[in-house]
Design brief:
The chain is of the alpha+beta class. About 25% of the residues lie in helices and about 20% in strands. It contains three helices and three strands.
């Protein structure tokens, strides 16, 4: 596995981590499938979702793979009226 910038930052900060690889399935790219393949509970595996706000530009949300982003609540969190997935 090639070391990523995130791995370098974690190491520089003295934060331990572990990596996991798995064979992915083009017909099932869900986070739940990924969690299952690496033997982790879905609430311990996160997905990154990117949205665009009506007035504030780009927003990034990291949520557990077994959850869905509520766009109304997310918009309220970042102080705008509405957001949409990019």
């Amino acid at each position: 596995m090639t070391k990523t910038n995130v791995m370098r930052l974690l190491e520089a900060a003295g934060i331990s981590y572990r990596t996991a690889e798995y064979e992915y399935d083009e017909s099932n790219l869900s986070g739940l499938h990924a969690a299952e393949q690496v033997g982790m509970a879905p609430e311990q595996v996160f997905k990154t979702l990117v949205t665009r706000g009506d007035k504030n530009g780009i927003n990034v949300f990291c949520i557990p793979v077994d959850m869905e982003l509520d766009l109304k609540k997310a918009a309220k969190t970042v102080g705008v009226k509405s957001i949409a997935m990019i």
